[in-house]
Amino acid sequence: MQSLIAQYALGAVVITGAATDLQRGKIPNWLTLPAMAAGLVINAVAGLGLGPAVWGMLAGLAVYFVFFAVGFRGAGDGKLMGAVGAFVGWPHIATVMVVVALVGGVAAVAVAWRRGTLTEVVRGAGGLLADMLRLRWREVKEQSDFRRAPGLLRMPHGPVIAAGTLMFLLLFPR
User: Fold this and answer.
1) Is the dihedral of CA 136, 122, 81, 48 positive or negative?
2) d(CA 69, CA 139)
3) pLDDT tens column, 77-105
4) How far is CA 37 from each of CA 29, 40, 87, rounded to the nearest angstrom?
5) What is the pTM of this model?
6) Residue 163: partners with Cβ closer than 8 Å, 6 or more residues away
């Protein structure tokens, strides 16, 4: 992503996505779908080129589709990451996803610690990881559905995507 226009547009998209996710618990299509198109057009005209932008968008969508399919994330999170991928392109979307994962991990630990549930969350994450490594997808899905129950520890992912993306833009300028 060479263009300052692309950087500012992406910043506006992820901040808007974070705000709507915090307010409504959803990231709307009216934001993510045009953002994907804008990222592709901007990169085709004045950026990385259309190929890397398409591959970045598809990578973001694919990884987050898996998270959606097993119940870890909502569809809006995946479409927002697809938009991020359209702006940053391939292979930079991989770096963004690593930064987002690190930010999400720190945020999850902080929220769990603040609510006094850190030990329970770490135990649950260990069990979930063990099921994933053993390819026990039904158990993973059941645990994911259980964790979405009202009153349990929940954290919107839009702000995490926004924070990770903004950190990427600041730490890895091009």
Assistant:
1) negative
2) 13
3) 999 999 999 999 999 999 999 999 999 98
4) 12, 5, 9
5) 0.85
6) 18, 100, 103, 107
